Amino acid sequence: MPVLALDTSAAVAVALLDDSGAVLAARSDDQPRHHAELLAPMVAAVLADADVGRSALTSVVVGTGPAPFTGLRVGLVTARTLGLALGVPVRGVPSLDGVAVAASRVLDAGSTVLVATDARRREVYWSLYRTDGAGGVDVLVAPEVGAADDVAADERTAGAVVVGRGGLLYPVLGAADDLEDRGLVDPDPAALATLAAQRSAHGEELPTTPLYLRRPDVTPAASRKRVLG
Questions:
Q1: Taking the CA atoms of the chain, what radius of gyration do you get in angstroms?
Q2: What is the pTM of this model?
């Protein structure tokens, strides 16, 4: 009963899992601003790698951000389109949760984890978690956006283990140097699929509403004033 999971909040990443949670195939590409060109071929490649047809999919899981408008929209539209075409449920999970779960697998139970990803403009998207000792996390602070300096100075983040690409970009946050080697930089779609299965089993609603947190960079021009003559 394969599940397709994808995330476009940072890198373009796709994973295919079986019903036990084992990863059958996965691919990713961190080229910036190429989400639309990369995602559909990557989905096809992952299915081919696992020798699984689209009609065999039982659900689609998608990261809901937070992330810049354009890249995130590509993933959400693709997931919803696949779900509609195949008649299978589409479940959304905040993308930052995927990084937190990856961190929970290498940290002690009860650790506080700050996930920070790149929001551009010298800002980060961030959220705070506590590891539960069973490979999962509890959300302490829901996703926010703010300047890296402000996040570092926020009393809520004091003593937290910092992971995510924002930690690499902004040393003020105090992240370790080996985040890439430990796979603690970008959201892992396989982790998102695992979370979706757990939360769905507990009856939680998993909407695919995007977490933009701020307005798109491009806004419609103001209408011209009518000149009376």
A1: 18
A2: 0.90
DSSP characters over 15-77 = EEE-TTS-EEEEEEE--TT-HHHHHHHHHHHHHHHHT--GGG--EEEEE--S--HHHHHHHHH
CA distance 41 to 23: 19
213 exposure class (CB count in 10 Å sphere: 0-12, 13-18, 19+): middle
Helix, strand, or coil (residue 173): helix
| pLDDT tier, 53 (very low <50, low <70, confident <90, very high otherwise) | very high
Comparing CA positions, the residue from 178, 68, 182 lying closest to residue 117 is 68
pLDDT of 86-124, one tens digit each?
A: 999 999 999 999 999 999 999 999 999 999 999 988 999
The chain-wide mean pLDDT, for the chain, equals 91
Alpha-carbon distances, residue 163 vs 41, 126, 173, 192, 204 (angstroms): 29, 10, 9, 16, 26
CA distance 35 to 59: 21
Query: Amino acid identity, residue 204?
Result: E
Contact (Cβ atoms closer than 8 angstroms) between residue 64 and residue 209: yes
**pLDDT by residue (tens digit) across 206-228?**
999 999 987 554 444 444 444 44
Burial 97-123 (b: 16+ CB within 10 A, else e): bbbbbbbbeebeeebbbbbbbbbeeeb
Other CB atoms within a 10 A radius of the CB of residue 128 amount to 24
